[in-house]
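Slide 14.
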Amino acid sequence: MNPALFNKPRLMTPGPTDVPPAVLLEMAQPIIHHRTKEFQAIFAELSELLRRLFRTAGPVLTIAGSGTTAFEAAQTSLIEPGAKALTIAGGKFGERWQDIYDAHDVGQHRINAEWGNATNPEQVKQLLDDHPDISVVTIVHSETSTATASDIQAIAAIVRQTDALLIVDGITAVGALPLDMDDWGIDVLVTGSQKALMLPPGLGFVGLGERAVARLESVEPAHVYNLDLRRWLKSHKDDDVPFTPPVNLIRGQLVALRMIEDQGLDMIWDRTAALAKAGRAAFEAMGLKLISTSPSDSVTGAFYPDGIDDKTFRGDLRDDFGIHVAGGQAGRGADWKGRIFRISHMGHVDVGDPLATLAAIEAALIQQDVKIKPGTALDAATAALQ
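Slide 15: predicted structure.
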């Protein structure tokens, strides 16, 4: 395939993802002051659209910072002093939430699934039965580092039978995968702006259920100031924030959420699933091994064939085809740096983007002497889409 045929940059990494032109234009508007009725009106509409996105009647707080910032705020604000957490990890980001509790000297019971595998809900139930002192359970819905989805609905039903709060990392799930915060009984749901919400990095969101709001009223978190969710919730009730917000990011996020509302969540979920199915079919047709036994539709990853150099492969995709894909990460459970690559199906992406990406991946592999019949990837992807 002639690389000269590709002249449109495509950001196919699982965060940050591409940002629609209408959102970029809104962020380029003159900045306004945040202590004004104009900002409060924008913020009120943003908060209502976030509630509909999360499918919750509760507040969804908008916090300046990354998804990690928002998740740490939930972790540290909601655990009862002296109590322990159950932390579930099966990849880099689940391990990050364990590290945060380590940094705050919070005792933990840990479930560490093998990378690429989802946690068994029965294992969660057993630990909760054995340890009634557990105050908080943390889990990742869509583990970006391993392209793996967990059965959050089943796990939420189990945690709901206890006094523990379930805090879900939905950073590559909200706006991409079927997810209903209130109906499933999720206490806290966290996401970030730079994934399916089609915005640059810089905003984190924390949805709070009834049990989480009640916990905030009774818990006095230690060593927390900016990330004290009580401050954010108090301001949120007045359509405001406690500290200076990134005003133009909030304006851009409002435009992106309007776009999501116009498209419809069900349609977006269906599109994401279809693109993921096509990507997995193409990878397997090219002889690539998927990295997950419980694949997420947000992101698809595959192991490299023997002899492929990660930097050369991803560099060729970027320089010859204008396509950016993500590599692997390393953690306590595994070291996948240089062994895998991942592509996104979230946000501002249509069928043309993954098809172009898959064609380029095939060409780049052939350039490194992988034996693939030209056209294999597109034939498999289009068959899966049909």
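Speaker note: The chain has two domains: 21-262, 265-385.
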